[in-house]
Amino acid sequence: MTASLNEGHRKRLRERFSKASLEGFHDYEVLELLLTFAIPRRDVKPLAKELIREFKGLKGVLDAGVGDLSAVNGIGESAAVLIALLREMAGAYINERMSGRARHVRSPEDVFDFLKEALGDGVGERLIAVYLNSKNEILGAESLHEGSLKSFSASPRKVIEKAIAFNARSIIFAHSSPAKGPAELDRRIARDFEDAASHVDILVHDYVFSGKGTRLSAREAGWFKGEVG
User: Fold this and answer.
1) pTM
2) Helix count (H) and strand count (E) of the chain?
3) Measured between alpha carbons, how far is 72 from 166 in angstroms, rounded to an integer?
4) What pLDDT digit, counting tens, does each position of 99-155 carry?
5) For the domain with range 3-92, which CATH number is right: 3.40.50, 1.25.10, 3.30.60, 1.10.150?
6) N or C: at which end does the chain have fewer Cβ atoms within 10 angstroms?
7) How far apart are CA 149 and CA 128, in angstroms?
8) How far apart are CA 47 and CA 200, in angstroms?
């Protein structure tokens, strides 16, 4: 790709993001856009695709350490640090927006309202874990995955065990999506979370879906096998 064509491609990526955030972006395009800010005058699409392949998805890339990222041919220290910085900033952003917002969860609507207040609108597709104490008060939340769930590859048990760091008694998972309704994949992931939680002293209260004009509680819909104690 020549320099002029490459610059035009970068400009179009930025314009797409400016107009519609990450809606319609493939995972590699999200990473490609990020890399344009660290690697000038070069076609970074192949690098983005290589990172997605090497770390098995966008989440894997964001979870990787600076050393592991730098080991990928073509990814220098600046790009590796930028990716790691984005991950840390995202966590700090969510925690700051949620600070001082301790509240009880009594229904799925409480979760939807909390996430809207904490994250705002237009955050794109993502899967979030909301951690609760024994009184069903929200302790905090964590973004587990951004983009299509088709590329979600984290171990359900590892996800559940993250709640221990929050000293949480239970978790509610929330999937925000541009789709009109949940897919069969949502049901499978919700059941996988429930199965994983049965092996540790953590409860899965619910898995809620928020799409275009649609809100669904997996527990109310009967997706789960057991009752919440």
Assistant:
1) 0.59
2) 10, 5
3) 33
4) 555 567 888 888 887 777 766 655 568 898 989 888 888 888 888 888 888 888 888
5) 1.10.150
6) C
7) 12
8) 39
